[in-house]
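Could someone model adenosine-5'-triphosphate with this protein?
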Amino acid sequence: MILVARDVIASYPGAEPVLKRASCRLSPGIRLALLGANGSGKTTLLRCLSGAHKPDSGEIALAGRPLKHDRAGLREHRRRVQLVLQDPDDQLFSADVTQDVAFGPLNLGLTEDEARRRVAEALDLLGITHLADRPTHQLSYGERKRVTIAGAVAMRPDVLLLDEPTAGLDPSGVEETRSALARLTGQGTTIVLATHDVDFALSWADEAAVVAGGQVHQGPIAEVLADTDLVSRAHLRQPWQLQLAIALGLESRPRTMTEVLEAIGPSHRPTA
Ligand SMILES: Nc1ncnc2c1ncn2[C@@H]1O[C@H](COP(=O)(O)OP(=O)(O)OP(=O)(O)O)[C@@H](O)[C@H]1O
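Reply:
Sure, complex below.
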């Protein structure tokens, strides 16, 4: 396992714990969708996994080594595990895009040349090379979101934790994000993505981790989302692909339009 949360209890001052012995496991290269109702604790879990929030008890382990929340431990952890926050304005600080994306690599102590290479690579991967010289405050919301992901990608992390990267994007922005994620997966990056978009989650992820009642329920995504009791407890809804499959009495659990049509077979397809 590349990253593990084991029996994590996490709280904020003066309140009941948000996570109550929550556990999840990330195998290398996996695409994990983190699902759950508003306020269920998805961001808190991402912050624990990234080292930004210290659990009251339990353990976060990277490649088998428990995270120590001291300066050296956190520095090494953050080099390999990058968290991208939901609101890009919480993460963009520099005057222009290149400076912003270069901030992390320069902070790692890399040379300016190497940082420049990392920036070019990250902008290319996110499909935003054309934004390199733009002032960050002039960018659209969707552009700012992609710049913050590029900033994390420039660190070449083993694990990328993304808090609602598709929220507020138009359909083409969602598809561009999906393409960038596919390129990252192709490079072997492990990705955790918190989202309320169950249709996107089913078509993108290998596994789902549903946060409900302070605990995490993890498994293959189609199995997890077919669990009607869990889906209702977590205030989710079933993705349209599964609703359709169940309504049509299909035995398979298709995840995309193509898979739905294949499962229906030629005799059931509407004729033109
Ligand atoms: N900094 C904080 N101080 C106090 N309470 C907090 C803080 N951050 C989050 N909480 C509380 O912890 C609980 C879990 O919040 P969290 O942001 O982890 O949920 P979430 O599942 O990511 O929600 P959403 O889907 O709305 O983004 C909520 O009740 C929230 O009010």
